[in-house]
Each structure stands twice: as C-alpha cells, then as structure tokens.
Amino acid sequence: MSMKTFDPVTQSLINRAEEMGIETGINRLESQLPQCGFGQLGSCCRMCYMGPCRIDPFGEGASKGVCGATADVIVCRNLLREEVGGAASHVGHARHVVLAFQKMVEGKAPGYKITDRNKLMEIASGLGIKTEGKSDMGIGKEVVDKALEDISNQNGEPMNWLKLRAPSREFEMWKEQGILVSNAHNEIEEAMHRTSMGNDADPVNLLLACLKMGLVDGYAGLNMATDFHDILFGTPQITTVEANIGVLDKDKVNIAIHGHNPVLSEKILEWAFKMKEEAKKRGALDINVVGVCCTGNELTMRHGVPLAAHNLQSELVLITGAVDAMVVDMQCIWPSLAMIAECFHTKLITTEPFVKIPGAIHVPFDVEHADEEAKNIVMMAIDSFEERKGEEVHIPKEKSVGFAGLSVEAIVGVLKKINSSDPLKPLIDNIADGNIYGVVGFAGCPSIKLRDTFMTEKMTKELLKNNVLVVTTGCTAQICIQAGLMDSSATDKYCGEGLKTVLHALGKAAGPDVPLPPVWHMGSCVDNARIGTLLGALADRMGVKISQLPVAGSAPELVQEKAVSIGTWFLALGLFVHIAPSPRILGSPVATNVLTKDLEGITGGKVYVELDPVKAAAGIISHIKHKRTELGI
Amino acid sequence: MKEIFINIERCTACKSCEIACAVEHSLSKELFSAIFETPLPAKRVHVEKAFSFSYPVKCMHCADAACIAGCPTGAMYRNHEFGSVNVNTDKCMGCWMCAMVCPFGAIIPDYGIKVAQKCDFCPDRLRKGDEPACVEACPTNAVTFGEVKELFKSKRLLSAERAAKAVLVREDKEITPLEMLRNIGNI
Questions:
Q1: Do B42 and A54 touch (CB under 8 A)?
Q2: Could you list the residue range(s) of the whole structural domain that residue B69 is in?
Q3: What is the ipTM of this complex?
C-alpha cells in the first residue's frame, strides 16, 4: 500500500491499481527511497571511465575526482548537461514544427494550412522580411529560412528568434555579459563538448554557459515552437474547458493524446470529428478526444478539448480501463504506459521514430501523409472500443471546469475593451495601486515527491489571498484547473479584495459577465514563451527591466530537465525563480552561491529553494514587496 | 536481539550508507541542511575496498567488547536497550584506547570535540520502530537488520539450498528412495 495520500481522483485510481496488482510510479518511488545523496547534491561525476567519482559532502573523504575536478566543477558540468537535455527537447520540438510548416509551404503536406495569417505577417515583419507583393506561402518560406538559420548559422550573429522575441533591455544586458547565442545546435554541441573530460574547469564559466543554454531554450525552443504552432493552428482565444479523468465517457471511443507536439494531435482531433459516424456504426455514442500532458494543453487552448490528466496521472488514466487508444508523440511519456495498457483493451500508439516503447504499436507519423495516418490511428481506436464494449471500467465522476486559452493576444484583446489605445495601462495601473500586488508565473510538472503535499494548490491559494495574480502553463496548469482555480468561482473564493475587483472588471469587459479566474491558463510548457512575452511587454511599457517588476517565476514541482532550462531562461530574464525540490546544485558552494545570490548582480534573477508551500509563497511575496518598494509603488 | 548483517557480495560501493549515517548523526537529520552545519556531521561507517569487493566497515557491537574492557574512564558502555556498544561523551577523555584495541577500525577519534565517535545503532530510529539509517539507505540490501536467530537461520537455509542444488545437478546420481519420496511430494 502507498504511504501517501493524493487528491480523491488520483487516490481512487491508485487504489484500483493496487487492487489489480498493477504497479505505478507511486510504488516505484517507494522502492527507490531513500535516493542517492551524491545524486541529489549533483556531486557524482560519470563523464569518464576513470570514475565514477563522488565528492564527500561531509568533507571527510574525497574532495576531488580522479582528474582533479572539484565538487564545483562536477556540479556545474552536471547542471549544464541537464540544461542541454531540456534545451535539446524544446529545440527539437520547435524544429519538428518548423519542418512540418516547411513541408506545408512547399505544398508537400496537404493536411496543414496557415490558420493565423496575422501572426505570420507579424513574425515576418519582425524578422525584417518584406511582405509586399508576396504570396503567403512565399512569406512562409522566408520565415522558415530565418528559423532554420538559428540552427545552422556560423557567423556568430545573434539568433533571429532572439532578436525577434527578446525584450530590448535584457537583450542589451546579455550582449554586455557576452552570452548572446547564435546557433542553438552549436550551443548544444559546445555544451556537451565542454562538459566532457578535460575541458571547462571553471565553475563560473560553466554557469554562464548554463545561462546561454537558457537563451537557446527560450528562443530557439519555446518562442519558436509557440510561434509556429500559432501560425499553423491558430492563436488561442479564451474558452472554457472541462478537466480531470472524469471527462472520459465509457460509451464513447476515448482517445487520449499524450505528449507535446500539436502537429500530431491536431490531426487526430480533426479525424476523430470526421469519423464520428463510423464510431456510431460500431456502437459508440461518439469519439471523445481528451488531452494528457502538454499536447492536451495545446488542444485545450485552441479547441477547448477536455483535459483528462496531467503527467503524473498519465498511468492512472489508463487504469480506468476506458481509454481505447493513447496516442503519444514526444517527451514525458513513461515507459510504464505499455505495461499498463497491456492490462486493458487499450492500444498505446507511438508515432515518433525516436520514441518507441516495447509493447506499444508504432505508427510512424509523417506530415506528408498526416491525413491517412491520423485516420488509421482513429480507426485503431474504434476497433479497440469494439473489443472493450461492455467491459467493466472505473471512471471517477469528479471533473472541474475552468477557463483556458489566455494567450497574450487574448489577454490584450480583453484589455483593449477597457483601453483600446493603451491596453496594458489598466493592468499597470492596477499593479501600481496594489490591486494586483504582483504576478507569479507557475511552470512545470506534478512531482510525485510533492503531489501529496498539494504544493502547487497551497502556494497558489496563499498568493491569491495576497492579491498576487497567477499565470501558468504545462501540467501545473492542469493541477490548477483540477483544483477549480481556473473557474470564475475561484475569484471570490480565494482572492484578496484588490485582485477580486480587478478580475470582476476584466470579466465584465471580456463579455460573459463573470469574473475572470485568478489563475490564467497560458498554454503548454513551450508556451512559457507567452509568459516571457507578457513580462517583456509589461517591462517595456513601464520603461523598466523585467528584474525590476514585482513578479516571480516558480517551478513548484520540478521534474523534467526541460523545467531546469526554462527556469534558467527565466533567471536570464532577471526573474526570481522559486524551485522545489532543490535543483542538484547544493554539492557545490560556488553553484549555490552564484545561483542563489551573486546572479542577482548580473541578470537580476536568482534561485529560491523552499519545499514548504506556505513558506515558499511568503518568500515570493517578500520578494515582490521588495521590488514594489524599489519601484516606489 | 537485533543485529546489522553485511552481505559483502551485494555491496556496490555506492556509499549511500555513509551519507545516510552522517545525515542521521547531524543536528537537522536532513541532507540539504546537514551539509551546511558546523561542525559537519561525521559518518560512522566507511566503505573500504578489499580486492574486487567493497565492504562497509562499522562497529560490530561485540558481545565481549575490547573497547569497553580497555576504556579507562568507563565512557564506553553497553546499552542494554538495544545491546549496542555506545560512548558516554561526558566521560570520554579522548585517549583513543578504544580505537587502538578495536579489531575493525570502527571507532573514529573526533579531535574537534575530543571524544570517540562510533556507530550507535541509531537509537532514535530504533525507538520509532525504524531500521538503522545505513540499512534503510542500502539500495541492494547488502546491509540488513534483523533478529540474530533469523539472520543465522537464513544463512543456514542458504547453505542447505546450495548443498541440495549441488546434488541435483550431479549427472551420475542414482535415484534414491528418498528422492522418489520427494518427487511424490511435489505432485
């Protein structure tokens, strides 16, 4: 039996798994405990075969590795490699989308089109592309060339997407610090090179390389991916959605899409709609596409597709026995899913050549044949439904509702209804007079280590009580929507008076006369780009640096390397970044001091580690208070 | 009485026991705080190399302990609650006689506070019903904690099993009446 207790939906499915003798991550974590201290402190080095070497944190044993690397060198090299893992994921994701778009503009991917032409034009002009007299496809081709330059350029010039999306003051600061990046692939290669045996042994130089990797992630990863998603599939607008595993329906063909890349999930959604009649013929009421993890967030933001499960529930959604097919692309897909799917009439379908899982069915998905393959996958789900029909399933009843689709464009759209010529003014006025005491961006995952403490929910409620507006992305957004924090009713229930007034006014302006929720769903994990854009716009409008704003970032339940590189981009932007559990830096006095203290003198950002939700919120609020005092508001 | 047993064949030299021991003997008992304490907490188990094996060396809590016999101030004593050999730090004068007579090198002189440091069997943990920290931390069960009788019993069972296997794989063996009986038993 599990020692931990989770929210009722999660708990009921864990109980069912235990009754059925199916192992989940909860059990596997218990069998891993206690976890290795050297690993947790980051002071184990496996870079060469003279090792593995470990540095004794209690000063009694070895203080250096065989090559002479100190704990500082070992920790900073390990951290940079974590950053590479994160940045490579986001740059790889962005490249996939750019190449899909390229096929489309070349006429080789008939299943795709330009959906948001305005965004294409905005980006083209931002990149300095002349649009007059050119066709959309012609402009698209030039935009693709600019994007691909960011992974091929050898001339040392800053990346196009960095110039396009970076806030001006921060761009200048990075230039001064010598951390502007020119080519994402070169940076990733150089980071792997410099961390291999016998290269960079200067911990501070390695930490600067971490900041560069943050910029690679932020611009050649997050921003580029979000921009191309929006052009291809549309820029999200405010919508309401249902969330939690209760969105499954035993009488429908349930297709859970899991992973990150909407290039796949958009087509599955389209074909699920087109094949409704086939499903009905086979005895189903309908086809129910539900989202898991971040590709779920992508579909939710643009189409209001119900959000079935966050990453930690990706196993549990299968334990219902009601999922006919789980279709996955890339990132955060646990190998255990195949073993669980096997216990039910659930087909696990992998689609990426570099993401295969023994026990899953592999349907290679390529954009040139997207329609055939998506149709084929939906048909496989319908076949599964026929096999499952009549079998016992266990779908918890609980589901919640909330708002999603708060892209920067959607937020500005609402604000324009209050002040059409200067839309950010109402927001800034309310920040200045303290109705909005500050803004905190939450990103990241649900951590199996902190989920039973309700870390994210408790921190959020503390912040809201103190009039701090919360914007969020990724699986953290799913935790918030499941907890009802993205529903209008949360505004009166959890917010301080000032924030309540603002959200009521915004709700009135937005149209449906209900307050806007106090936690804003800004998208998937690559959509942290949207948070960066919003912060940049606010800072620009106020004429200050981002580090001067009464804002903070938080990865309240750190899991993935991607969160480390996103967090580092936030640090480069000058944000105070709360992280729990601790990143693997405490084995190094230099890394600990630089990241939690000295960095503030360089970018304005710093790391703050706190595992207690109430104390963490208090720490963030005291930072916001400090920034407000400095601004004289 | 419970004892800590070490299976040298299972030790991978990960040193998890060393870290867990130091953390258990820190003020905070939390890794992330313990590494910032002054003085740093000391481990009482040391993973040492022996040919191609590694072995966590610690106090064996000897039934007739040389360190107790040799201690001139009576600082080294038997804790009858857990059967362990412990140090009364108020009485210890730092002469290191105990460390000198210990056949295992398991007693560590602490020059900072001038007392002998050694494995104390994690009394705080045992009182809560937990296992000693090194036992809990060992990922391969090289370090185990159990009733002496059961630990020896399991060793005897293992030897019996080895002998049985040796007989079973003998190619020229004749079927004995006893084996026929066993085969029937299996059905």
A1: no
A2: 62-117
A3: 0.71
